Amino acid sequence: MANPDGECATARACNASKTPMVLSSWATTPAEDIGVYAPDSFKVYQLYMSNIHEVNLDIYDRIRKAGFKALALTCDTALLGKRLNDVRNKFSLPHPWKM
Description:
The protein is α/β, with parallel strands linked by helices and 99 residues long. It is 37% helix and 17% strand. Helix 1 (6-17) packs parallel to helix 2. It is globular.
């Protein structure tokens, strides 16, 4: 979110250095694009599970087709907390991640 080329640049660097690439569910770059930028890198997708089974299956199909080989399941954020520093600083996520 801080740099429009952030995840793509990271993917290219991971691919060049043969370092695994981990992409967050909150990434601003689609998994399919990361697959293009890091074709030879071992790719892991960090997933916040949905309560909707079909959504999880759709994500799984997309990342598998994009060349991701592993999932890192996150289970500690079922509900986002009220982050007082973010409230005080008037931080908000950019569109389309705004909640």
